[in-house]
Every structure is written in structure tokens, then in C-alpha cells.
Amino acid sequence: MKKTILLIAALVLAILPAFSQERKPDGNLPKWEGLAETPQMGWSSWNKFQTEINETLIKDIADKMVELGLVDAGYVYLNLDDGWHGERDAQGFVHEDSEKFPSGMKALADYLHSKGMKLGIYSDAGTNTCACYTGSLGHEYQDAFTYAKWGVDYLKYDWCYTSNINPKGAYALMRDALRWAGRPIFFSMCEWGSSKPWEWAAEVGHSWRTTGDIGVGFLAIPQRYDENGNRLWTPLGVMPIVDMNEPLRQYAGPGHWNDPDMLEVGNGMTAAEDRAHFTLWCMMAAPLILGNDITDMTPETLATITNKDVIAIDQDRLGIQGLRLKKEGDIQYWFKPLEGGDWAFCILNIGEAPATVTIDWASLEVDDELSGRRTDFANVNYRARDLWNTSAKPFTTLVKGKGKLRRQMVQNPVSTVVGSHDVAVYRLTPVNGQ
Ligand code: GLA
After folding, report:
1. What does DSSP assign to residue 178?
2. Taking a C-beta distance cutoff of 8 angstroms, is the pair 69, 302 a contact?
């Protein structure tokens, strides 16, 4: 008996310093670092399947993501959203729904890891998840322990059923629990921007939702009503979300990103709208979490989500969220500073008809206080690469430079046509000595 007590005391003494060294001055544990140097990329079950998920579906999606090159393109997280939970046991430990996931979460994590992918899971800071499964309130450390034991790599933590709970405390509590559990787990906060997490959560999570839920619609989605004329919850379209997320650029950066919600590419918008939606998410350095049925998509959708040059805008190591320089009627001009002096330049047309856009470079000079970067169209030539190849190479001309054909931007006003609800996006690279 005495021996056992001594052994326990020795163990406690051995473990304690490790924890106390980890503790920050305010007594909390630090979030896991190094997991979000660029915005996270992956797939989530929610937008397409809601709670209708199961092991077979998830494995099929994973197989297809490998087969179609999506994992190679960077989409490594496969995230189960709401609907995976089973019951808590007598000790309070959570279990998966054994009908939906008969082999268990550990087996699913092992399967994904063997394919070079990572497993994401979902829970909620309140008593219940938004679809009314069990929430983590009062079980935070137990749940974090369970996720770590299963080999989970990502947690999306929602905000339903949280009356009288303080968001700062609730999210910090789960951050601590995840750190304590010992496995690096990406922490995706989802409280819809209600308490302005961008102002306080850089030390808590790796990304935070900035808005309510996205739906399938490019402009505002009309308010929905039930048969009695009562207002129903209505999701947000792409552009209303963009308008809310764009002004928050100062808060995003490596390790902590604004999250304007998961992608709806391939879920019913036009190819142009999908392209514009995807491009804007990349211009805003947003998480790229696919939300469509990977096992059943058109070649156009696949081409959109695997455009490596556009993904590179999102994943640029500087991690600077792009800015909307100006609006002229239905036309918007966006810029994003990139590594090596490059810029991403995007022209967006939110109008109902194709628009002829005359580009006046003098009026598009960017002087970005946040990044300290500025363009110099007056004095520097830029090579412009059209990343979607949708237009007839506007404002570029083919010139012979040192024996080979080279596209070079001309500094005179030039015109291009941008389709309705579409974008033209270019990577501008300074060309020296020409
Ligand atoms: C909330 C979230 C969504 C999704 C659902 C699941 O609405 O914002 O992204 O996770 O819950 O019920």
C-alpha cells in the first residue's frame, strides 16, 4: 500500500512540472502551434449530406479524394460534421453511432491516415449540437481525451444550445482540453461571429467562423417562410458573406484565419458562380473546405476545385487576406499581396449581364497599410497570368522578349469582358528591366 502511494506521488511529481511548464502566465494552456500556417483545406460532410453520414460514404469520399488528386492538391482533412455522435456511456465518455460507424472512429482515423489524410470531427460547446446530438458541455476534457485516443486531427466546435455560457471561456476551455489531451488537433471555432472572435480568439483557435451558415446562392438568398408565413432560418449567399468577411482582414494571418464557412462549389450554382465563390475564398485566405459530393461531380466542378494556381493564392505563405480595392457599379477590383512581390488581381462582376471592363491601371494602384505592400503600375512592368483562362487574355499582349514569346502587361487602359457572376483572376509578377 505504502509502495503504491509512493509510486503515485512520484508519478504526480514527475508529471506536474511538465504541465506547469506548458502553462501560460494566465494559467491556461497554449493552443497547438504549427497546424495552420496556411488556411486549412479539406472536405466536410455538412453542406451536402447534413446528418446522413456513415462509414461507407466517408470511405468512398476519401478514396475518391485520393483518386482524383484532391489530396495531392492539399485537401487533406476529411471532416465529419454533425450526426456522428452516439450516446455517452455511464462514465460520460462519448461514443460514435455504432450503426453509422460500425468499425468505430479509431478504425476510420487509421484508414484515413493510411491514405495520407486526416480525420476531422465535430462537437458543440453547449448541451447539444445544432442537430441535437450530445454536446460537450461538462465533458470537455473527456471528449478531448476521446478524440485524441481515436486519432482525430481536427475539431470543429459549434455554438448551439449555449445559453448563459461565455464564448471566450467555453472556447478557451476546449483549447486547454485539446492541449492537455496531448495530440495536436486543429481547433476550428464555429460561433458564427456572434461575439467577434476575431478580436480575441487568435490565442484560442486556428480559425473562427465570421458569419452565419452559407447556402447555395451567389447573391442574397431570399428569406424563407413556412406554410403559415412564419419566418424560417435562411442561410446566407456567397456575396453577403463576402461583405461581412472582407472588412476583417486585419485579424487573419498564419495560425489564425477568418472562416467565411465551407464551400458550396458543385452544389447547384452555375459554373461561373462556383468559380467566383472559389476565387473569392482564395482572395480572402479562407479555409477551403469542400462541401460537395466528391463521388459525383462534373468535370467543371473538379477543374474549379483543383486549379492549383488559384489554390496557390489561398495558400500563399505570407498569409495576407486580400482586399477589395474598389467597387464600380457591379464591378469589384480585388488584390492580394503574394510572396516574392507578386499580386493576385481579381475582377468580379456581380451583375446579371456580362460587363466590358476598362482597366485603368493608374486608378488601381494599391497602397496596403496592413501588409506594407504597394503596387507600382506607373513604373514597373508586370507579367499577368490569367489563372482561369476564361477570357481572351485581356490587358496582356504578346511581345518578343529576348528571343521567346512573353506576355507582358501593357500600362494603357485596356478592356476585357467579365461574365455575369464571374471573375477574371490574374497573378501579377513584376518583370525586371523591361
Ligand atoms: C451549425 C454550423 C454548421 C453545421 C451545423 C450542423 O449551423 O454553423 O456549419 O455544422 O451547425 O448542425
Report:
1. H
2. no
pTM: 0.91
2-14 average pLDDT score: 48
Look over the chain and give the mean of its residue pLDDT values, rounded to a whole number.
90
CATH number of 24-314: 3.20.20.70
Ligand 1 lined by 190 (C-beta under 6 Å): yes
Residue 226 has pLDDT above 90, yes or no: yes
Which sequence positions are flagged as catalytic? 158, 213
Q: Whose CA is nearest to atom 1 of ligand 1?
A: 130
Exposed (0-12), middle (13-18) or buried (19+): which is 9, by Cβ within 10 Å?
exposed
Q: Whole-angstrom Cα distance, residue 231 to residue 222? A: 11
Q: Provide mean pLDDT across the span 294-314.
A: 98
| pLDDT at site 399 | 33
Our answer on whether the CB atom of 158 is closer than 6 Å to any ligand 1 atom is yes
Ligand 1 proximity of 140 Cβ (cutoff 6 Å) = no
Q: What SS3 state is found at 152?
A: coil
State the DSSP code for 223.
P
Class of domain 323-430: mainly beta
Per-residue pLDDT tens digits for 96-143: 999 999 999 999 999 999 999 999 999 999 999 999 999 999 999 999
Please choose, from the candidates 187, 432, 426, the residue with its C-alpha nearest in 3D space to the C-alpha of residue 312: 426
Alpha-carbon gap, residue 387 to 296, rounded angstroms:
25
Looking at ligand 1, which residue's alpha carbon is closest to its atom 8? 213
- pLDDT greater than 70 at residue 322: yes
Rounded distance from Cα 148 to ligand 1 centre (Å): 22
* Three cell numbers, residue 413: 487602359
**Model confidence over 200-221: pLDDT tens digits?**
999 999 999 999 999 999 999 9
Please spell the DSSP secondary structure of 133-144, one letter per residue.
Answer: SB--TT-HHHHH
Distance between CA atoms of 29 and 173, rounded to whole angstroms? 9
**Residue 199 Cα distances to 168, 250, 286, angstroms:** 11, 10, 17
Smallest CA separation from ligand 1 atom 3, residue: 213
* Count of other CB atoms within 10 angstroms of residue 239: 20
Helix axes 271-283, 238-245, angle to 10 degrees: 10
Q: Is 282 in the pocket of ligand 1 (CB under 6 A)?
A: no
Backbone dihedral angles phi then psi of residue 384, each to the nearest 5 degrees: -115, 120
pLDDT of 27:
67
Is the beta carbon of 130 within 6 A of some atom in ligand 1? yes
